[in-house]
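During the reporting period the student researcher (J.K.) took over the structure-prediction task from the postdoctoral fellow and processed the backlog of single-chain submissions. One of the processed entries is reproduced below for the supervisory committee.
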Amino acid sequence: MTSAKDTSPAMRWLENMLLCILLGLIVLRTTIIETPHIDQLQTRLFLSSEIVSLLISSLMLACVVVWLLVSALRGQLRWRKTGFGIAVGVFIFAGILSACFASDKRAAVTDMVTLATPMLAGLFLVQLLTSAAKIRLALLLILAVGVAATVQCIGQRTVSNETLVEDYEADPTAHLNKMGIEPDSMEHWMYEHRLYSRDIRGFLMTSNSAASFFLLAVFAGLGLCLQAVGKKMSQEQLAALVCYGLVFGIVLFGLFLTQSKGGIGALILGLGLLVVLCVFGKAIWKRRLLFGVLLLLLIILVAGLVTSYGLEHGRLPGGNSMLVRWQYWQSAATMICDQDVTGIGGGNFTDFYTHYKVPAASETVQNPHNWMLSLLSQYGPLGLIAFLAAVLLPLYKVFAHFYADSHLPGGSSNSKRSNIWIGLLAVSAVMLLFVRPALVDTEFLYQRVDVRSAAYIVLYLIPAGVFIFAFILLRTASLGDKSVDGHNERLAIALICGLIAVLIHNLIDFALFEPGIFGVFWLFVAILIAPMHNTVEKAENIIILDAPKRLGLWAGVAIVAVVYLAIALLPPMRTEGYFKQAMGDDVNRIKLIEAAIEADSLSSKTAYQAAGIFKQTYQQQVNKDRRFLEKASDFAHVAASRNPADFKPWRLLGHIQALLAEQAEGQQKEKYLQKAFDSFQEAISRYPGSGKLHYNLAKVAESLNKPKIALGHYRKSVEIEDAYRKQFRIMYPDRETIISRLGETNYTQAKRKIKESK
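J.K. obtained the following structure tokens:
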């Protein structure tokens, strides 16, 4: 290893291009609803949400691969020490380990890719952010997205939410069909509840998600303001400060528009921490061991008080959201105690949650709404420790840089005028104007061409225009900001407080792991580390690659790329291609579905969907063809074998076998009923808190002439429904009608059966 400055124009051009692409993808992710484990979104996508996430992640990884291969060709690799590279590697290892033992291995692989990619991008961005000017542009991009998100929130508050309500009220059935929601179901009520709550969510999934993004943008804007303030300010510097202040006010307004109590509370705590660090930072650093121990004791004390309150009252202090969060946490804690040290696997929480779900709880969830419990349950202790190290080590390094190495000179802005901002703007604009709308199936949502054109203007053109205007304004104003060459302690502290505020907020939410927010989170970490390598006195660390090392690097990259393509990316893409083709080909549908199932041996989703489709086709037929049910049964068995923890394939099998029993007679009928009974038992073992499953099992038990067993499950279904109704009244005391989870007819019949037995 040697020290030298890499001045190759070609390499600088390549790195600038990769930086533009990487930041453009981060901008894209902050403006789409990207949920890799949930296919039912508030917008319909041409591709499944899983494929969208994998493609974006793959493009980000491709940037890293290109950089490594070009470095190998040149015979030298410039690598800046980040302080969190080993921790990221350990986290990836924990993800691979948990995926090996996961029930849904496809979900585990996808989740690991989705989480690991932003962390790897953070490592890579440290290598690319080679000047203070580039760092400034990256922050300005996020602020420009924040301005566009605020405009989106204003539109939702004043127009679009009301339009959505009007569309629903005009034709509820058609509206629900667009959303893929069954009328008069629990999902229908929950959607209606969210609809009338008029959630202000910006570009993201929920108001809490938008609040987490705004927290990062707010502290970025505040940091730029604090950094720009000086004793003697020129007119250009003052103009830059005014512009920063204006944008800071806009994104702060956006945060308050979300009305996220957790987000606003985290903002207050983050601002308090900012004041403490700005005033007492050096004193705290000198006594960091003492303050570290005190902070750890404080965390233990708060955790103990929260747990004690929850155990005593069966909820946390606050509104309905805190009641259900305690239930999530209870279930997650029990899950963690029952699992191996490897965790259940990323993306597997929803499959295991039903095993531990409190019967009174109204919904199943994808995440425990606490990032620590989420990591601990899915990635095990090793994953949680690695994540904490990846976050805390860079923060420690930053404090050491400013408080122990404060003699180092400021960063070099490479103030020679660069046009990289044009590339950043161009790539981001392409993402917003073309890629973002291309992901949405507008022909499905809006049949009329004129309506689709209007929707494009409102949903895509205007937000992109706001983003472009805000970025150009910020970039122009920032040219007069000379603080970019200074000792940027206040900016760094503000960014650290933003990261901590997001972590605090997500102790009661799941937004952190949404790819858009996770990407910005690790961009901020990179922005904190990169300036330490941009100081005047520091040179680049260049690793000279001789022929064996070069060959080793090529071989390593090739092996990782092949494994990634073979396991993570190509199987789900082939499966989706076959499945979409099957839906449009009645003649070869079965063969194509079988090919889709075979293409991805890790996934149970396609087999489960196919089983549901064939069952539904059978039920819609006038002349019932039992071959559809038999094929549905085969597919459901495949789904159950590929995801042993999931109750849904067994529930579906129970319904399929009950339908087969309706067509059979004698011993054959009893055989199918016994199979249905066994299937519902398997489902209940995975979801004991489901009143519907107990009711279904009771009905089958009656048909098998097992009255005592039937009565027991009728009682259990009523017990679960009563617990749910009691909590419903607590949560919604002003609502006269209780939305039955069991179904009013089933509930009445079950109570009648119990009464008749007495």
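The committee noted the following: Residues 146 and 683 are 45 Å apart (CA to CA).
J.K. will present the remaining backlog at the next meeting.
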